Amino acid sequence: MKVYDGSQTEQATDSRPERIKVGIAEYEVTTETAELTTSGLGSCVGVALYHDPTNIAGLIHVMLPVADEMDDGKPAKFADTGTELLIDEMEAAGADAGELEAKIAGGSDMLDFSEGGSGIGDRNITQVRETLTAADIPIVGEDVGGDHGRSLRLETETGNLLVKSANREDQRL
């Protein structure tokens, strides 16, 4: 008679990819199978870059359009310097900038202080687009504008970007 004491079972392994959180004014680049995530995108913009031949992926959460003279030591805080930094880091990890694709989300007008709104979200979107265009990186998917917050999950195996929003259907870019 065999007695079952639980020691005969195989240990269950968690096969989900590692989740790497990217905070406000932060970025992450990985060559590993993972999910890069960020949340709290209101007027901020999330820029996801993906290099399909190598599965190198990067995600940045920018909050203001232009660094200008504001050198606070955090280039990832700004749409211009942050997007350039992400491109440079993708290249340093082995990606060919000429083969990168971008997906962007965010840039909402969450705070309507005036008739035209705050405009920060729109300015963030415009600056991200200009920086990516200058680098010849196509934007192949986007979920921008509106008046709602977003959270992002970039799957590094596929380059898929899942955009979650309150009171809206999830978007897969």
UniProtKB/TrEMBL annotation:
Domain of life: Archaea
Species: Halovenus carboxidivorans
Protein name: Probable chemoreceptor glutamine deamidase CheD
UniProt-listed Pfam families: CheD
Stored InterPro entries: CheD-like_sf, Chemorcpt_Glu_NH3ase_CheD, Cytotoxic_necrot_fac-like_cat
Annotated GO biological process: chemotaxis
UniProt keywords, alphabetically: Chemotaxis, Hydrolase
Protein's UniProt keywords contain Hydrolase: yes
EC number: 3.5.1.44
Principal EC category: hydrolase
Reaction catalysis annotation: L-glutaminyl-[protein] + H2O = L-glutamyl-[protein] + NH4(+)
Function in brief: Probably deamidates glutamine residues to glutamate on methyl-accepting chemotaxis receptors (MCPs), playing an important role in chemotaxis.
Record has Hydrolase as a keyword: yes
A GO MF term: protein-glutamine glutaminase activity
Gene: cheD
Family note: Belongs to the CheD family.
